[in-house]
Amino acid sequence: MKVVRVQYTTRPEYAPINEQNIAAVVAELKTLNHPGIKYGAWLLPDGKTFMHFDQLESEEAHQILQHLASFKKFADELSASDLEVEPKLEILNLVASTEAYY
Hints:
The chain is about 35% helix and about 30% strand. The chain is built from three helices and four strands. Helix 1 (about 15-30) runs antiparallel to helix 3.
Protein backbone atom coordinates (compact mmCIF):
# COMPACT_ATOMS: atom_id res chain seq x y z
CA MET A 1 0.00 0.00 0.00
CA LYS A 2 1.15 3.53 -0.81
CA VAL A 3 -0.32 6.56 0.95
CA VAL A 4 0.53 10.00 -0.42
CA ARG A 5 -0.27 13.37 1.13
CA VAL A 6 0.35 16.54 -0.88
CA GLN A 7 -0.28 20.12 0.23
CA TYR A 8 0.22 23.39 -1.67
CA THR A 9 -1.18 26.91 -1.87
CA THR A 10 -2.51 28.44 -5.08
CA ARG A 11 -3.03 32.10 -5.92
CA PRO A 12 -6.56 33.10 -4.82
CA GLU A 13 -7.74 33.60 -8.41
CA TYR A 14 -6.56 30.11 -9.41
CA ALA A 15 -8.30 28.22 -6.57
CA PRO A 16 -11.67 27.86 -8.41
CA ILE A 17 -9.92 26.52 -11.52
CA ASN A 18 -7.99 24.06 -9.37
CA GLU A 19 -11.22 22.90 -7.75
CA GLN A 20 -12.70 22.25 -11.22
CA ASN A 21 -9.62 20.29 -12.28
CA ILE A 22 -9.74 18.20 -9.10
CA ALA A 23 -13.44 17.51 -9.68
CA ALA A 24 -12.56 16.26 -13.18
CA VAL A 25 -9.96 13.87 -11.70
CA VAL A 26 -12.54 12.56 -9.22
CA ALA A 27 -15.14 12.12 -11.99
CA GLU A 28 -12.69 10.13 -14.11
CA LEU A 29 -11.70 8.00 -11.12
CA LYS A 30 -15.36 7.29 -10.36
CA THR A 31 -15.86 6.18 -13.97
CA LEU A 32 -12.74 4.02 -13.80
CA ASN A 33 -13.91 2.52 -10.49
CA HIS A 34 -10.49 1.02 -9.72
CA PRO A 35 -10.73 -0.82 -6.38
CA GLY A 36 -7.11 0.01 -5.53
CA ILE A 37 -7.35 3.80 -5.75
CA LYS A 38 -8.86 6.03 -3.07
CA TYR A 39 -8.43 9.75 -3.78
CA GLY A 40 -9.57 12.78 -1.82
CA ALA A 41 -8.79 16.48 -1.86
CA TRP A 42 -9.65 19.15 0.68
CA LEU A 43 -9.62 22.94 0.62
CA LEU A 44 -8.30 24.51 3.81
CA PRO A 45 -10.08 27.47 5.46
CA ASP A 46 -7.89 30.08 3.72
CA GLY A 47 -9.67 29.17 0.46
CA LYS A 48 -6.46 28.59 -1.50
CA THR A 49 -4.52 25.80 0.24
CA PHE A 50 -5.28 22.31 -0.99
CA MET A 51 -4.47 18.97 0.62
CA HIS A 52 -4.69 15.72 -1.35
CA PHE A 53 -4.74 12.34 0.34
CA ASP A 54 -4.30 9.30 -1.90
CA GLN A 55 -4.48 5.69 -0.77
CA LEU A 56 -3.14 3.35 -3.41
CA GLU A 57 -3.08 -0.41 -3.40
CA SER A 58 0.21 -0.55 -5.30
CA GLU A 59 2.67 1.42 -7.38
CA GLU A 60 0.73 0.21 -10.42
CA ALA A 61 -2.41 1.92 -9.04
CA HIS A 62 -0.37 5.09 -8.49
CA GLN A 63 0.76 4.99 -12.12
CA ILE A 64 -2.83 4.55 -13.30
CA LEU A 65 -3.82 7.69 -11.38
CA GLN A 66 -0.91 9.72 -12.73
CA HIS A 67 -1.64 8.71 -16.33
CA LEU A 68 -5.31 9.73 -16.34
CA ALA A 69 -5.98 12.52 -18.86
CA SER A 70 -7.72 14.59 -16.18
CA PHE A 71 -4.82 14.14 -13.76
CA LYS A 72 -2.29 15.21 -16.40
CA LYS A 73 -4.36 18.34 -17.13
CA PHE A 74 -4.67 19.08 -13.41
CA ALA A 75 -0.92 18.64 -12.84
CA ASP A 76 0.14 20.63 -15.92
CA GLU A 77 -2.13 23.56 -15.17
CA LEU A 78 -1.22 23.57 -11.49
CA SER A 79 2.48 23.62 -12.37
CA ALA A 80 1.95 26.61 -14.68
CA SER A 81 -0.25 28.54 -12.22
CA ASP A 82 2.45 30.40 -10.22
CA LEU A 83 1.76 28.81 -6.85
CA GLU A 84 2.19 30.75 -3.61
CA VAL A 85 3.54 27.63 -1.86
CA GLU A 86 5.01 24.74 -3.86
CA PRO A 87 3.64 21.23 -3.29
CA LYS A 88 4.99 19.32 -0.32
CA LEU A 89 4.70 15.59 -0.97
CA GLU A 90 4.83 13.08 1.87
CA ILE A 91 4.71 9.30 1.66
CA LEU A 92 2.96 8.02 4.80
CA ASN A 93 3.25 4.66 6.51
CA LEU A 94 0.14 3.27 8.15
CA VAL A 95 0.61 2.46 11.82
CA ALA A 96 -2.95 1.49 12.78
CA SER A 97 -6.50 2.04 11.57
CA THR A 98 -10.08 1.12 12.33
CA GLU A 99 -10.50 0.36 8.63
CA ALA A 100 -9.07 -2.46 6.54
CA TYR A 101 -6.84 -1.30 3.69
CA TYR A 102 -5.81 -3.48 0.79
